[in-house]
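C-alpha cells for chain A. Residues wanted.
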C-alpha cells in the first residue's frame, strides 16, 4: 500500500483518470496543474483533510471511506464537479453552504456519515429546481423528496 505520492505527480499533465483507492494516503501533492484530470478515486485512504490542491476540472470525485472531518468552505471552486461521493466518512459533521452554488453537481452521496444530520441551507431549493438530481444521506433508508431527488434519513 502506498503511503505517499511523489511530489512530481502533478507533472502528468495528460492524466485523465486516477484510482488511488485502497492505500494509506493521508495527503496529496499539488495536483492543480492536472487540467485534464476528470475522475479521481481517493476512497479507502486515511485522509483527514480534504485535498485542497485538486484541479478545478474534476467531474467525478470519490473520497468515501476516509476520515474526513469537513469539506472546504470554498468547495464550489470545483465548478465542474458532477458526482461527489463521501460515503462512510465517519468524522464528517456538516456540509458547507457553498455546495449550493455548485451548478454542475448532480449526485451527492453521503451514506454512513452518522454525524451528518442536515443539509446546508438552500440545498432543498436546488432539489426543487431539479438541478441536483440525487442526494443520498444517512444510513440506508430513503424517502422521495421532489420529482427525482432522494434523501435518506
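Reply:
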Amino acid at each position: 500500500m502506498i503511503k505517499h505520492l511523489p511530489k512530481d505527480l502533478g507533472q502528468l499533465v495528460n492524466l485523465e483518470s486516477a484510482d488511488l483507492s485502497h492505500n494509506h494516503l493521508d495527503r496529496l501533492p499539488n495536483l492543480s496543474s492536472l487540467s485534464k484530470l476528470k475522475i479521481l478515486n481517493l476512497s479507502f485512504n486515511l485522509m483527514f483533510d480534504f485535498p485542497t490542491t485538486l484541479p478545478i476540472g474534476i467531474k467525478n470525485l470519490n473520497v468515501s471511506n476516509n476520515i474526513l472531518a469537513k469539506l472546504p468552505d470554498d468547495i464550489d471552486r470545483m465548478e465542474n464537479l458532477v458526482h461527489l461521493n463521501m460515503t462512510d466518512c465517519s468524522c464528517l459533521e456538516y456540509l458547507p453552504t457553498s455546495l449550493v452554488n455548485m451548478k454542475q453537481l448532480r449526485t451527492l452521496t453521503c451514506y454512513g456519515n452518522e454525524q451528518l444530520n442536515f443539509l446546508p441551507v438552500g440545498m432543498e431549493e436546488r432539489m426543487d429546481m431539479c438541478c441536483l438530481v440525487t442526494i443520498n444521506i444517512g444510513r440506508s433508508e430513503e424517502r422521495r423528496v421532489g420529482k427525482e431527488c432522494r434523501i435518506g434519513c
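Residues 123-128 form the longest helix (6 residues). The chain has a mean pLDDT of 83.
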